[in-house]
Amino acid sequence: MSHLRPTSDPEIWKKGPAFGMAGVHADGMDVLKVREVAKEAIERARRGDGPTLAECETYRFRGHSLADLDELSDPGKQFHYVFLMVS
């Protein structure tokens, strides 16, 4: 199920402050950005400033199972992530 249906705000990272923690978003396809967000979250926790809710969005190239068909994927996005993000 898409996370868009069961929540009023699909940007999960924005829910962090409601639970008393920082919330941050990162492009999960950018490993260096994810590393930066993780380092900042670790530093924040070590300072005693509490946990961090980090949402790292990625593109799923394949389905979870045979019931989750690859034909539903957007070929343009696949091309973008396979060929353009690598270069």
From TrEMBL:
Residues 7-68 form the Dehydrogenase E1 component domain. Its cofactor is thiamine diphosphate. The keyword Oxidoreductase applies. Keywords: Oxidoreductase, Thiamine pyrophosphate. GO terms for biological process: pyruvate decarboxylation to acetyl-CoA. InterPro entries: DH_E1, PDH_E1_Alpha_Subunit, THDP-binding. This is Dehydrogenase E1 component domain-containing protein.
